[in-house]
Amino acid sequence: MGKVVMYSTVSVDGFIADENDQPGPLFDWLINGDVPLDESGVVKVSQPSYDHTRTYWDRIGVTIAGRRVFDLTDGWDGKPPGGIDHVVVVTHRPAPEGWDPGAPFHFVSGVEEAMAKAQELAGDRVVEVAAGDVGGQMLAAGLVDEVRMDVAPVVLGSGKRYFGSVHAQHLLEDPDVMIQGNRVLHLSYQVRR
Description:
DHFR-like_dom_sf, Dihydrofolate reductase family protein, single chain, two-stranded antiparallel sheet
């Protein structure tokens, strides 16, 4: 099985979006460099951010996200983001009406079912878990191996928390990756077992 990584860009005060689900300036680091991060050429980052992020993205086999993210992105028009092979959506609702059943999206009702499906699909590749409520539930259930965050120099004040509604203490190891890019600090922590 591949490693399970909880991931997102986050403000220095711990939010992944504002109260209206808008990231605001959190993603400025994705447009202020001169190295294209993907084939679109729209996303351009600094060389250190490229070296760190591209290597990680290339290892991802499956992303797990909640229904809120799926709805906000309009299901990425049926194409998983960033060249990822599959997306597992945690939801209590069925796929949207008219959804292409051939699209590589899998709708499941809980985090344990999502993790089992994701690991089956990913094989030895990384299972990425989107931060927020689903990511926090996965962390609380002991299903996350690594917490990875791109910390933007932004204070949002309130909004959607990186760890969702987790209220219990969870210990992480010291950061094993610390890379400074333009308008971002890339951090990675192993989850203490």
